[in-house]
Amino acid sequence: MKALVLFSGGIDSTTCLASAIEQHGKDNVIALSLSYGQKHDKELQSARKLAKYYNVRHMEIDVAKIFENADCSLLATSDKEIPKETYAEQLKTTQGRPVSTYVPFRNGLFLSVSASVALANDCSVIYYGIHSDDSAGNAYPDCSREFNEAMNSAIFLGSGGQLRIVAPFVGMTKADVVKKGMELGVPYEMTWSCYEGNEKPCGLCGTCRDRIKAFATNGITDPLMKAEE
Amino acid sequence: MKALVLFSGGIDSTTCLASAIEQHGKDNVIALSLSYGQKHDKELQSARKLAKYYNVRHMEIDVAKIFENADCSLLATSDKEIPKETYAEQLKTTQGRPVSTYVPFRNGLFLSVSASVALANDCSVIYYGIHSDDSAGNAYPDCSREFNEAMNSAIFLGSGGQLRIVAPFVGMTKADVVKKGMELGVPYEMTWSCYEGNEKPCGLCGTCRDRIKAFATNGITDPLMKAEE
Q1: Are B90 and B206 within 8 A, CB to CB?
Q2: CB nearest B157 (choices: A61, A147, A155)
Q3: Could you report the predicted ipTM of this complex, rounded to two decimals?
Q4: Which residues pair with B2 in a beta bridge?
Q5: Which residue, among A130, A105, A131, A2, has the nearest Cα to A57 in the 3D structure?
Q6: Which residues of chain A are under the pLDDT cut of 50?
Q7: CB < 8 Å from A in window 88-127 of B
Q8: Does domain A2-217 have CATH number 3.40.50.620?
Q9: Which residue of B has its CA nearest to A105?
């Protein structure tokens, strides 16, 4: 059975890739990375290095045109600053609406692209690194449990039962994901999560904060945040 | 309220476009056409002419790369012949699996792209010309009622309740759609449905057969099938 992994080069999807390889063997795994017009390509660079490290087939597709008019602070087409507050603080000002780093229906689009690519390449499962911390208190509606269930159904039904989503971390926290990844020997120093594209992670954006905390809960320092020797 | 219409240039989506314009006014309607690597661009040419005829904003996005390895007879990358039998006949040989003109998870992908584009362009609804004949007896699993319901939920939930699908023909047959379109004055002679890209429709592929029948049920000849004067 062949598996397609939706693979950004961040810590969740890299742990997901390691899990898929453990389960199916590297020759039966395809890693798919989608670029969507981000302000930088640091994640994609990490994804490329990690796919090489794991020696799996790596596909890249550019879907930036779909988002070209979106008013989202992650995109190169936007002048908005990427917020430096926690998601809880950001949600106070958005009044329940998605945060400015919400890319319109991104995860729905990414899962649909994954479904088409998986079917076109004889994969029977899509590995998706979603976990229980991912919706960040409704900051990202396309990460909620209800959304995931609806997409799972749509992909199973719309493929005529040929394809399903495997979300190995769905009941786990991000800290649990890191714990699992440590057991699998994931080279986290090669991953990238920060929304900014500087040489070192900013340590302040929502995704940096979540990541640092997940490592800290496991009693370790995020390898990207370590002081230079 | 702004509406995005998923618009192929065929008879269903053109009737859907006319309905959306009737409801929202042409200045609040965006028509979105997706090319996916078909063997010809006759539908897209029709879509362009019709968008001009209706004087609405027309967006085109090419998603062909997503399907480049798909084994589907509609695609330019495939050597497969497009079947000339009815869907019922085709399903006898596929043993319940989708027919060879099934493009992997195409409608799921198209609706997801529509959702992202709609949100990025301040639309609150997606018009989608699905009707009750559309699944063609499971020939197309991504046209089934259950699939549509799952996608509707995914889009509503994944957008944080900002966006929903409107499917004005969901309880109607294709013949009913044509009847509605005749009332709205849709210029059906400008549409294109045939899977082949010849000067005239083949009259034999699944979509030609369905279309001819829908006009015949209304007591008229498909305007594209009329003998030359």
Answers
A1: yes
A2: A147
A3: 0.93
A4: B123
A5: A2
A6: 229
A7: 97-98, 102-109, 111-113, 115-121
A8: yes
A9: B116
B180, B140 in Cβ contact below 8 A?
no
Distance of alpha carbon A11 from alpha carbon B84, whole angstroms: 49
Cα separation of A228 and B178, whole Å?
69
What is the spatial distance between Cα B21 and Cα B3, in angstroms, rounded to a whole number? 9
CATH class for the region spanning B2-225: alpha beta
Q: What residues are paired with B31 via a beta bridge?
A: B5, B58
pLDDT at residue A96, as a whole number = 73
Contact across the interface for B116 and A104, Cβ inside 8 Å = yes
Q: How confident is the model at residue B228 (pLDDT cuts 50, 70, 90)?
A: low
Q: Which residues contact B189 (CB under 8 A, 6 or more apart)?
A: B223, B224
Q: What is the pLDDT of residue B61?
A: 97
Find the farthest-apart pair of alpha carbons in chain B and give their distance in angstroms, rounded.
54
Please indicate whether, in this complex, the C-beta atoms of A108 and B70 are within 8 angstroms of each other: no
Tens of pLDDT, residues B117-148: 999 999 999 999 999 887 766 788 888 889 99
Domain locations in chain A?
A: 2-217
Rounded Cα–Cα distance for residues A44 and A50 (Å): 10
Amino acid type, A153: S
HEC assignment per residue over chain B: CEEEEECCCCHHHHHHHHHHHHHHCHHHEEEEEEECCECCCHHHHHHHHHHHHHCCEEEEEECHHHHCCCCCCCECCCCCCCCCCCHHHHHHHHCCCCCCCCCCCHHHHHHHHHHHHHHHCCEEEEECCCCCCCCCCCCCHHHCHHHHHHHHHHHHHHCCCCCEEECCCCCCCHHHHHHHHHHHCCCHHHCCCCCCCCCCCCCCCHHHHHHHHHHHHCCCCCHHHCCCC
How far is it, in rounded angstroms, from Cα B204 to Cα A164? 34
Compare CB distances from B158 to A113, A142, A159 and report the shortest one's residue. A142
Tokens of A184: 């699998």
Q: What is the pLDDT of residue A228?
A: 55
Q: How far apart are CA A207 and CA A96, in angstroms?
A: 19
CB-based contacts of A5, cutoff 8 Å, min separation 6: A13, A16, A17, A20, A29, A30, A31, A32, A126, A127
